[in-house]
């Protein structure tokens, strides 16, 4: 039985990807997500970024790293960094004292992965939902390889599924299993819920404390002023990176004489050569993206554009400086 999909194209069926339950371009399998472990190279979310990385430079996010834990208070010794001097204790005792810190062994990274029906769309290589799952797998395996804890909040149009950050293969596999299930559950008949994005943001805020890295992976469907405020609050004590997934057909209406457009319940045939329709189509997409981009820029947060045409790994490597 072939899986139904939300696809925008000519009614002839030409250039459509072949749809099947086993096609990882439509609905990713756990085997495909596990296989990403062996190719998750060439990018990093560590504080030191190459010059070409979108995370470097004055306007990019300053990744906080793993943070510091207070270890002890002791007498000053020659060679100690004067910046660690505890002046209150020094003044009270009359002898110089320094505060000693140790670096945390791992950092907490949260993935916020969108698996709503708005993500079940693709016109060429893959569905946005499948690309999001593959991105999440690549990032999870990379984070684990760097010795940090990886957690996630995966949401569809009805539920949010939270995974506490863990530094283990089992923790990653649990996340990947949910992504496989979320992909498999998407069908053309699902009902869209634009409010679910803010519900997911709010749920994540209850789990994230301080000095974590939050990576949003989705298409921003339903992003509004309330989303702006939630992202702002998240970014006050954490690093936030947004990965906006898009399909070229969402921005540029294919110039075909007959296009079948569906919202999951009804279908209509329109002409892609109609100039006014093309203009309105493009403006609608740009308005949505610009709102999200402007909000992130106000808070000094990076936005990484990810399309459904190029391979996710290559896009990560380009955006983050192609580290070896």
Automatic annotation (TrEMBL):
This is DUF58 domain-containing protein. It comes from the Bacteria. InterPro entries: DUF58, vWFA_dom_sf. Pfam families: DUF58 (PF01882). It comes from Persicirhabdus sediminis. Residues 72-288 form the DUF58 domain. Residues 1-22 are annotated as: Disordered.
